[in-house]
């Protein structure tokens, strides 16, 4: 059995590797060979500590990812998020590989954003409004900066001190970050990314300019919500997996009958992506297991070469 430790996977991962693996996974998710199974949402003995189990199979891979979110880790100075990916040896019915994936998961999530944004955002997009100042938000900023020449990253956070510290962190990485209020950021933005644990909209629909692309990265459980539903009827709606997005993602808040397009269909040209410079596009990422399986496969290849 192959065992890739957190240290090994963390040393091998990059935004480039994650982008390519996740792009392939999103295209594969739209194929007839893909089977993506319902997400299990659970909690630990302390109910505020959560975990999820996501599983999938396609023509070459089968397995699952267990992800955890433990806010109680703050007291111990440990990250809130952790993940582990298990790949089946399909010839023997046993686990063939274990990939520790705490850092991988952050790259994988940001890569989904980058792949969708690359496909849907206007090519001349330069201003990013970023909602969130937590662990994941930094990866989102770096991933988007790789695929668009950002001249400004306007960071919107709930806490002024945390926002200032986060802006400083991004600037140390060479990113053009500054703190901003929600309305100011949205009205200036070409791209809006939300990476929060919000349970109500973070901004108003009429603050969004025509031609904006929006990625909701934080809604992955019933009751979570980052975007104003009034925006949906004005926009074209894309997601990683329509049935999952409508159950636990941002699009659990859409009206019945509204059309959701799998981003994999747009990537493989079986559905239209952005059609005009003026339309608003929205991508919802609730996270699918094929992303984890493909990135684990890529990490195994990278560490064995």
Automatic annotation (TrEMBL):
Signal peptide: none annotated. InterPro entries: NAD(P)-bd_dom_sf (IPR036291), ODC_Mu_crystall (IPR003462), ODC_N (IPR023401). Pfam families: OCD_Mu_crystall. One of its GO terms (cellular component) is cytoplasm. It comes from the Bacteria. Coiled coil: none annotated. This is Ornithine cyclodeaminase family protein. It comes from Parasedimentitalea psychrophila.
């Amino acid at each position: 059995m192959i065992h890739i430790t957190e240290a090994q996977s963390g040393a091998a991962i990059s935004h480039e590797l994650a982008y390519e693996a996740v792009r392939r996974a999103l295209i594969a998710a739209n194929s007839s060979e893909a089977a993506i199974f319902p997400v299990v949402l659970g909690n630990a003995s302390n109910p505020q500590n959560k975990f999820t189990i996501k599983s999938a199979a396609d023509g070459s891979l089968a397995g699952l990812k267990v992800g955890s979110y433990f806010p109680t880790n703050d007291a111990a100075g440990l990250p809130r998020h952790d993940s582990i990916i298990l790949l089946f040896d399909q010839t023997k019915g046993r686990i063939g590989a274990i990939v520790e994936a705490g850092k991988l998961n952050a790259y994988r999530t940001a890569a989904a954003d980058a792949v969708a944004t690359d496909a849907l955002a206007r090519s001349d997009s330069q201003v990013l409004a970023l909602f969130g100042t937590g662990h994941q938000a930094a990866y989102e900023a770096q991933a988007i900066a790789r695929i668009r020449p950002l001249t400004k990253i306007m960071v919107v956070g709930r806490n002024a001190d945390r926002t200032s510290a986060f802006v400083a962190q991004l600037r140390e990485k060479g990113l053009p970050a500054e703190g901003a209020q929600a309305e100011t950021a949205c009205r200036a933005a070409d791209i809006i990314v939300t990476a929060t644990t919000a349970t109500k909209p973070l901004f108003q629909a009429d603050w969004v300019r025509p031609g904006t692309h929006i990625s909701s990265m934080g809604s992955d459980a019933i009751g979570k919500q980052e975007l104003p539903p009034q925006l949906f009827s004005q926009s074209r709606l894309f997601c990683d997996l329509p049935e999952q997005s409508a159950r636990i993602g941002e699009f659990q808040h859409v009206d019945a009958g509204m059309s959701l397009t799998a981003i994999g269909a747009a990537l493989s040209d079986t559905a239209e992506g952005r059609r005009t410079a003026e339309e608003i596009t929205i991508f919802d990422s609730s996270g699918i297991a094929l992303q984890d399986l493909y990135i684990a496969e890529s990490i195994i290849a990278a560490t064995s070469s």
